[in-house]
Amino acid sequence: MTSSLRLDGVDRSFGDRQVLKNISFEVTAGRMTGFVGGNGAGKTTTMRIILGVLAPDAGQLLWRGSRLTRQDRRRFGYLPEERGLYPKMTVREQIVHLGRLHGLDPATARRNTDDLLDRVGLDGRGNDLLETLSLGNQQRAQVAAALVHDPEVLVLDEPFSGLDPMAVDTVVSVLRERARAGVPVLFSSHQLDVVERLCDDLVIIADGVIRAAGGREELRAAYTLPRFELVVDGDAGWLRDEAGVTLVDLDGPRAVFDLAADADDQRVLRDALARGPVRVFRPVTPSLAEIFREVNR
Ligand SMILES: Nc1ncnc2c1ncn2[C@@H]1O[C@H](COP(=O)(O)OP(=O)(O)OP(=O)(O)O)[C@@H](O)[C@H]1O
Question: Of all protein residues, whose CA lies closest to atom 10 belonging to ligand 1?
Fold first, then answer.
């Protein structure tokens, strides 16, 4: 039985507003799953349902193929949107305390805390009150707190918000390490460039509906148009008259164009070479931001 987490047909309403509609997806063991969607799309609500903070109106949650229980959730790690650490306690003291609440013995709780503070770059800050840390460093402490009990599943609501690029890399490497050890990791983010770099799988939600889910590369391939970039030395305006070519963007020697399904990219390349040197000729792979815009249209 693989250690995957499944949501199956989850619905949720607040009053008469349905904010989650038939949500189904899988967070697979050992993979980083990026959860992306615009403001109010339903990410936080979905994560709260996974952690049992909110109940679903319909549908079910499965962990390792069985219905998810309260006991299972004790072994989950959660970084909630509202964050959970106390400003007036020292960083180390409260992370150790959280480890103890999750059932660790005192020595293990202390050892895990010190290891994590070191990993997230907060060694030397453990005895400071949380409120005296910069926001980015508080965020690092929050991430350490979510990981202290060696969770079997990680659910992280915007773990990278407020982090500088170096801190993003630090947190990414800690999460990757957990994923490699077999932990399913679900994280939401508005930073699509980070998600693009980090995730193995993607779940895209809009208005409470899953619009796309699957491996990052499969999604890319599914959304790849027959689109090309061409850079020549002269002006690429002649492409306008080329059969099967629809110009998307033309800026002097650089053009981006779509090709009709029956057109031959090699013919376009030969025509370009007949006019002079070709510096770039390549299919254009959509970025996650482009896929995201596409599925939200
Ligand atoms: N406790 C609540 N009572 C009423 N409506 C709620 C409640 N919690 C969330 N909602 C509504 O549910 C919808 C989904 O909200 P949710 O916070 O899950 O979105 P999100 O994708 O996390 O958004 P963001 O990216 O802005 O954090 C929103 O329209 C929100 O206003």
Answer: 14
164 and 255 both lie in a single domain: no
Q: What pLDDT, in 10s, does the model give residues 239-292?
A: 999 999 999 899 999 999 989 888 899 999 999 999 999 999 998 877 777 777
Instruction: Print the domain residue range for 17.
Output: 4-215
Indicate the residue type of 36.
Answer: V
- Both 63 and 118 in a single domain? yes
- Within 10 angstroms of residue 221's Cβ, the number of other Cβ atoms is 12
Q: Same structural domain for residues 139 and 235?
A: no
Instruction: Note whether 233 and 154 are same-domain residues.
Output: no
Considering just the CA atoms, what is the radius of gyration of the chain in Å? 24
Considering 189, 215, 241, which residue would you say is the last residue of a domain?
A: 215
User: Relative to the CA of 47, which ligand 1 atom is closest?
Assistant: 18
Ligand 1 lined by 44 (C-beta under 6 Å): yes
7-13-18 Cα angle (round to 5): 90
Model confidence, pTM? 0.84
In the block, which residue shows the tokens 């008469």? 16
How far is the C-alpha of 232 from the C-alpha of 254, rounded, in Å?
A: 7
The answer to whether 126 and 80 have CB atoms below 8 angstroms apart is: no
Distance CA 198, CA 31 (A): 10
Query: Cβ(203) to ligand 1 under 6 A?
Result: no
For the chain, how many structural domains are there in total? 2
Query: Counting atoms of ligand 1 from 1, which one is nearest the CA of 42?
Result: 18
pLDDT of 131-176, one tens digit each?
999 989 999 999 999 999 999 999 999 999 888 888 999 999 999 9
